[in-house]
Amino acid sequence: MSALPFPGGTSVTRLRVYGLGPAVDGLDGGTPHLHTVSTEAYVVLGGAGAVQLLDRTGYREQPLAAGDVVWFGPGTIHRAVNHGGLDVLAILSSRGLPEHGDAVMTFPDAVLADPAVYAAAAARGDGPPLRRRDLGVEGFLTVREAFLAGDRAPLERLLDRAAALVHPLAEGFAERRAASVGADDALGSAALLALAAASTDRLGALAPQVSRLEGSAYGMCGVLQRLDAD
Questions:
Q1: What is the pLDDT of residue 5?
Q2: What is the rounded CA–CA span in Å between residue 120 and residue 6?
Protein backbone atom coordinates (compact mmCIF):
# COMPACT_ATOMS: atom_id res chain seq x y z
CA MET A 1 0.00 0.00 0.00
CA SER A 2 1.19 3.54 -0.72
CA ALA A 3 2.93 5.45 2.06
CA LEU A 4 0.46 8.24 1.27
CA PRO A 5 -3.03 6.72 1.54
CA PHE A 6 -5.68 9.02 0.09
CA PRO A 7 -8.68 9.78 2.35
CA GLY A 8 -11.58 7.36 2.35
CA GLY A 9 -9.63 4.45 0.90
CA THR A 10 -9.70 5.98 -2.58
CA SER A 11 -7.14 5.73 -5.36
CA VAL A 12 -5.88 8.57 -7.53
CA THR A 13 -4.57 7.95 -11.05
CA ARG A 14 -3.62 10.27 -13.87
CA LEU A 15 -4.99 8.87 -17.10
CA ARG A 16 -3.78 10.02 -20.51
CA VAL A 17 -6.42 8.47 -22.74
CA TYR A 18 -5.13 6.38 -25.62
CA GLY A 19 -4.86 7.66 -29.14
CA LEU A 20 -4.39 4.27 -30.79
CA GLY A 21 -6.31 5.07 -33.96
CA PRO A 22 -10.00 4.66 -34.67
CA ALA A 23 -11.95 1.58 -33.60
CA VAL A 24 -14.56 -0.04 -35.83
CA ASP A 25 -17.00 2.84 -35.21
CA GLY A 26 -14.41 5.48 -36.10
CA LEU A 27 -13.79 6.64 -32.52
CA ASP A 28 -10.44 6.63 -30.74
CA GLY A 29 -9.89 5.97 -27.05
CA GLY A 30 -9.87 3.29 -24.39
CA THR A 31 -11.40 -0.11 -23.74
CA PRO A 32 -15.03 -0.05 -22.55
CA HIS A 33 -15.40 -1.71 -19.16
CA LEU A 34 -17.28 -1.66 -15.88
CA HIS A 35 -16.38 -2.00 -12.22
CA THR A 36 -18.24 -4.46 -10.03
CA VAL A 37 -17.47 -2.76 -6.70
CA SER A 38 -15.72 0.55 -7.26
CA THR A 39 -17.29 3.95 -7.85
CA GLU A 40 -15.30 6.20 -10.18
CA ALA A 41 -15.07 9.88 -11.05
CA TYR A 42 -13.26 11.58 -13.92
CA VAL A 43 -11.80 15.02 -13.23
CA VAL A 44 -10.73 16.36 -16.62
CA LEU A 45 -7.34 18.09 -16.55
CA GLY A 46 -7.03 18.95 -20.23
CA GLY A 47 -7.66 18.02 -23.83
CA ALA A 48 -10.99 17.12 -25.34
CA GLY A 49 -13.08 13.99 -25.62
CA ALA A 50 -16.13 12.28 -24.22
CA VAL A 51 -17.17 9.39 -22.03
CA GLN A 52 -19.85 6.98 -23.21
CA LEU A 53 -21.91 5.57 -20.32
CA LEU A 54 -24.34 2.66 -20.37
CA ASP A 55 -26.19 1.07 -17.47
CA ARG A 56 -29.72 0.15 -16.44
CA THR A 57 -30.64 3.85 -16.22
CA GLY A 58 -29.90 4.47 -19.91
CA TYR A 59 -27.22 5.42 -22.41
CA ARG A 60 -25.54 8.81 -22.56
CA GLU A 61 -22.46 10.39 -24.10
CA GLN A 62 -20.93 13.17 -22.03
CA PRO A 63 -18.53 15.60 -23.73
CA LEU A 64 -15.37 16.23 -21.70
CA ALA A 65 -13.27 19.38 -21.40
CA ALA A 66 -10.92 20.74 -18.74
CA GLY A 67 -12.75 21.27 -15.46
CA ASP A 68 -15.51 18.73 -16.08
CA VAL A 69 -16.25 16.09 -13.44
CA VAL A 70 -18.22 12.93 -14.25
CA TRP A 71 -19.27 10.38 -11.58
CA PHE A 72 -20.48 6.83 -12.19
CA GLY A 73 -21.15 3.86 -9.96
CA PRO A 74 -20.49 0.10 -10.06
CA GLY A 75 -21.95 -1.62 -13.10
CA THR A 76 -21.87 1.43 -15.38
CA ILE A 77 -20.08 0.60 -18.62
CA HIS A 78 -17.78 3.49 -19.50
CA ARG A 79 -15.72 4.16 -22.59
CA ALA A 80 -13.28 7.08 -22.74
CA VAL A 81 -13.23 8.68 -26.20
CA ASN A 82 -10.22 10.82 -27.12
CA HIS A 83 -10.74 13.81 -29.41
CA GLY A 84 -7.25 15.12 -28.73
CA GLY A 85 -4.94 15.07 -25.70
CA LEU A 86 -7.61 13.93 -23.22
CA ASP A 87 -6.00 14.00 -19.78
CA VAL A 88 -8.01 12.85 -16.76
CA LEU A 89 -7.54 12.41 -13.03
CA ALA A 90 -9.43 9.21 -12.21
CA ILE A 91 -10.57 8.86 -8.59
CA LEU A 92 -11.85 5.43 -7.53
CA SER A 93 -13.25 4.09 -4.31
CA SER A 94 -11.97 0.87 -2.71
CA ARG A 95 -8.26 1.33 -3.36
CA GLY A 96 -6.56 -1.65 -4.96
CA LEU A 97 -9.69 -3.45 -6.17
CA PRO A 98 -9.58 -2.32 -9.84
CA GLU A 99 -5.98 -3.57 -10.11
CA HIS A 100 -6.99 -6.95 -8.64
CA GLY A 101 -9.92 -7.87 -10.86
CA ASP A 102 -12.79 -5.51 -10.00
CA ALA A 103 -12.92 -4.27 -13.61
CA VAL A 104 -14.51 -6.37 -16.37
CA MET A 105 -14.05 -5.45 -20.02
CA THR A 106 -17.02 -5.62 -22.38
CA PHE A 107 -15.77 -8.41 -24.61
CA PRO A 108 -18.25 -10.38 -26.75
CA ASP A 109 -20.46 -12.77 -24.81
CA ALA A 110 -18.62 -15.90 -25.95
CA VAL A 111 -15.44 -14.52 -24.35
CA LEU A 112 -17.13 -13.41 -21.13
CA ALA A 113 -18.79 -16.83 -20.76
CA ASP A 114 -15.46 -18.66 -20.30
CA PRO A 115 -13.15 -17.42 -17.50
CA ALA A 116 -10.04 -18.88 -19.14
CA VAL A 117 -10.83 -17.31 -22.50
CA TYR A 118 -11.62 -14.00 -20.81
CA ALA A 119 -8.35 -14.06 -18.85
CA ALA A 120 -6.35 -14.66 -22.02
CA ALA A 121 -8.12 -11.82 -23.85
CA ALA A 122 -7.73 -9.44 -20.90
CA ALA A 123 -4.04 -10.19 -20.27
CA ARG A 124 -1.69 -7.23 -20.36
CA GLY A 125 0.92 -7.13 -23.05
CA ASP A 126 4.08 -5.06 -23.32
CA GLY A 127 2.53 -2.31 -25.41
CA PRO A 128 -0.71 -0.41 -25.97
CA PRO A 129 -3.61 -2.90 -25.88
CA LEU A 130 -5.04 -2.30 -29.34
CA ARG A 131 -6.47 -5.82 -29.77
CA ARG A 132 -8.03 -5.71 -26.30
CA ARG A 133 -9.52 -2.30 -27.04
CA ASP A 134 -11.06 -3.50 -30.29
CA LEU A 135 -12.50 -6.62 -28.66
CA GLY A 136 -14.03 -4.52 -25.90
CA VAL A 137 -15.53 -2.08 -28.39
CA GLU A 138 -17.00 -4.97 -30.39
CA GLY A 139 -18.85 -6.32 -27.36
CA PHE A 140 -19.87 -2.86 -26.19
CA LEU A 141 -21.39 -1.86 -29.52
CA THR A 142 -23.43 -5.06 -29.63
CA VAL A 143 -24.87 -4.43 -26.18
CA ARG A 144 -25.43 -0.72 -26.78
CA GLU A 145 -27.23 -1.14 -30.09
CA ALA A 146 -29.52 -3.78 -28.62
CA PHE A 147 -30.25 -1.53 -25.63
CA LEU A 148 -31.08 1.45 -27.85
CA ALA A 149 -33.40 -0.78 -29.88
CA GLY A 150 -35.28 -1.68 -26.70
CA ASP A 151 -33.63 -5.04 -26.01
CA ARG A 152 -32.09 -5.03 -22.52
CA ALA A 153 -31.25 -8.74 -22.49
CA PRO A 154 -27.64 -8.36 -23.74
CA LEU A 155 -26.90 -5.78 -21.03
CA GLU A 156 -28.38 -7.99 -18.33
CA ARG A 157 -26.39 -10.94 -19.65
CA LEU A 158 -23.18 -8.89 -19.61
CA LEU A 159 -23.79 -7.87 -16.00
CA ASP A 160 -24.42 -11.51 -15.08
CA ARG A 161 -21.19 -12.55 -16.82
CA ALA A 162 -19.23 -9.82 -15.03
CA ALA A 163 -20.56 -10.86 -11.63
CA ALA A 164 -19.72 -14.50 -12.33
CA LEU A 165 -16.16 -13.61 -13.35
CA VAL A 166 -15.49 -11.52 -10.24
CA HIS A 167 -17.45 -13.60 -7.71
CA PRO A 168 -14.45 -15.82 -6.76
CA LEU A 169 -12.54 -12.67 -5.72
CA ALA A 170 -15.22 -11.26 -3.43
CA GLU A 171 -13.78 -12.54 -0.14
CA GLY A 172 -10.35 -11.11 -0.91
CA PHE A 173 -11.96 -7.85 -1.99
CA ALA A 174 -13.71 -7.53 1.36
CA GLU A 175 -10.41 -7.94 3.20
CA ARG A 176 -8.60 -5.48 0.95
CA ARG A 177 -11.38 -2.90 1.24
CA ALA A 178 -11.45 -3.23 5.03
CA ALA A 179 -7.71 -2.58 5.13
CA SER A 180 -7.91 0.64 3.10
CA VAL A 181 -11.34 2.10 3.89
CA GLY A 182 -11.29 0.72 7.43
CA ALA A 183 -7.99 2.39 8.28
CA ASP A 184 -9.29 5.81 7.26
CA ASP A 185 -12.59 5.23 9.07
CA ALA A 186 -10.74 4.29 12.25
CA LEU A 187 -8.71 7.50 12.02
CA GLY A 188 -11.86 9.58 11.68
CA SER A 189 -13.64 7.73 14.47
CA ALA A 190 -10.72 8.32 16.84
CA ALA A 191 -10.78 12.03 16.00
CA LEU A 192 -14.52 12.20 16.74
CA LEU A 193 -14.09 10.42 20.08
CA ALA A 194 -11.33 12.83 21.04
CA LEU A 195 -13.49 15.79 20.06
CA ALA A 196 -16.40 14.44 22.11
CA ALA A 197 -14.05 14.29 25.09
CA ALA A 198 -12.84 17.85 24.41
CA SER A 199 -9.37 16.44 23.87
CA THR A 200 -6.81 17.94 21.51
CA ASP A 201 -4.61 14.82 21.51
CA ARG A 202 -5.56 13.89 17.94
CA LEU A 203 -5.03 17.36 16.49
CA GLY A 204 -1.81 17.99 14.58
CA ALA A 205 -0.52 14.49 15.32
CA LEU A 206 -0.02 13.43 11.70
CA ALA A 207 2.83 15.07 9.81
CA PRO A 208 2.00 16.29 6.29
CA GLN A 209 3.41 14.17 3.49
CA VAL A 210 4.32 14.81 -0.12
CA SER A 211 4.27 12.29 -2.94
CA ARG A 212 4.15 12.21 -6.73
CA LEU A 213 2.16 10.42 -9.37
CA GLU A 214 4.67 7.81 -10.44
CA GLY A 215 5.36 5.24 -13.10
CA SER A 216 3.93 4.77 -16.53
CA ALA A 217 1.76 1.74 -17.23
CA TYR A 218 -0.58 0.69 -20.01
CA GLY A 219 -4.09 0.54 -18.57
CA MET A 220 -7.49 -0.19 -20.06
CA CYS A 221 -8.16 3.39 -21.10
CA GLY A 222 -4.74 4.96 -21.43
CA VAL A 223 -1.29 5.48 -19.98
CA LEU A 224 -1.48 5.53 -16.18
CA GLN A 225 0.44 7.28 -13.42
CA ARG A 226 -0.76 6.17 -9.99
CA LEU A 227 -0.53 7.69 -6.56
CA ASP A 228 -1.81 4.49 -4.95
CA ALA A 229 -0.31 1.49 -6.72
CA ASP A 230 -1.46 -1.11 -4.18
A1: 63
A2: 32
